[in-house]
Amino acid sequence: MDNQTQPGRVIACVAYAADGSRIGEIEFEKVSDLLARDDGSYVWVGLHEPDEALMKQMQEEFGLHDLAVEDAHNAHQRPKIEAYGESLFIVVKTAQADKGHVEFGETHMFLGPRYLVTIRHGASATHTPARQRCERNTRMMALGPSYPLYATLDFIVDNYMPVVHAFQQELDTLEKDIFAEDYRRGTIQSLYDLKQELTALKMAVSPMQDILAQIQRLPPALLHDEVRLYFRDVSDHVGRVNEATDVMREMLTAAMGVNLALVTVAQGEVVKRLAGWAGLLAVPTLMASWYGMNFHNMPELSGTYSYYILIGLTIFVCIILYMVLRRARWL
To answer: How many domains are contained in the chain?
Structure first.
C-alpha cells in the first residue's frame, strides 16, 4: 500500500487481474514482464518525488516517451494532458490546508491500456484511500486502469473542498474585522494574502475542467465507456469548486473595497471634527487679535464695560457656532 511518504521511492506497485481482483504487490523491476503477458492484467504504480535513476527505470519498464518522463521528473508543470502514442501524460495540481495556509503540489499520471502510474510532488496526500476504495469494487476494477484514474482524480478534487471551506471560514472572520470600530492594518494584509491563495487555487482548478473534458473523449482502448460516466461526476465537482472560488474572489475584492472605503470615511470624520474645532477656536482668536491691536483711536478701549462685553460676545458667538457645527455633525 502507498501509506508511506518517503521521497524517491516506489510507494506502491500492485498488479490486478483481468477480473479486477488484486494479485498483489510485485517488484518494480518485473512490471515489464507482467505487461508482456496477454492475460488482461494491469498494474497500478505509485511514486513519490522519484529521483532520476528511478524515473529512468520507470521509462524502461513502461516504454514511456522521453519528453513525458522529463516533465514528470521536473515538478512545477502546468496542469495539462498530452498523448504520447498509446499512453497519456496528465498533470494536475493538488492542494492541502496547513496551519492557516494552503500548500500546493502536483500529481503526474501516466495512463496506458494496462497501467496507471501516479507520481506525487510537494503537498499531496497519499492515494491510499483511493486505492482501498477501488479494491473494494472489483467489478469496476475489471474495466481496466481508467477506473483507478477516475478514483485518483476524484480523490484529488475532493481534497480541494476542505481548502475551500477553510477559505470560507477565514473570509467570514475577516468580514467581521472589516466592520470593527478601530482600523486594523493586518486586516487588509490578510485580505490580500487570502486573495493570492484563492488565485493560486483558481489556477489549479480551472484547467482541470478542460483536462476532464478531454479524458471523456478518449477512445475505448484507454477509457471504458462505463467509466466515462464517472468522469462527468468529477467534472461536476470541479465546476462547483471553481464557482465557489470565483464567488469568494469577488467577495474578497468587494471586502477590500469596503475596507478601504471605511478607512477613508473614518479619516474624513476625523478631518471634519478637526476642522469643526479649528473653526470654533478661530472665533476667540479673531476677536482677541482684533482688540489686541491697541490702537489709541479705538473707542471700545476706553469703555468701562468693554472688556466684559467682549468676553460675553465671544462666548455667545462660540456657543452659537458650536450648536451649528453639532447639528451638522462636525463635532
So the answer is: 2
pLDDT digit string, tens, across residues 126-165: 888 999 999 999 999 999 999 999 999 999 999 998 888 8
- Taking the C-alpha atoms of residue 19 and residue 165, their distance in angstroms, rounded to an integer, is 39
More confident residue, 275 or 98: 275
182 DSSP assignment: S
- The residue range of the domain holding 308 is 264-327
Q: Does residue 50 contact residue 58 with C-beta atoms inside 8 Å?
A: yes
The Cα 238–Cα 157 span in angstroms is 7
Last residue of a domain, one of 223, 241, 262: 262
pLDDT of residue 274 exceeding 60, the answer is yes
Continuous segment of H or E residues that includes residue 212: helix 185-216
Within a 13 Å sphere around the CA of 72, how many CA atoms are in the beta-carbon half?
Answer: 33
The region that residue 122 occupies, defined by phi over 0 for left and psi between -120 and 50 for alpha, beta otherwise, is left
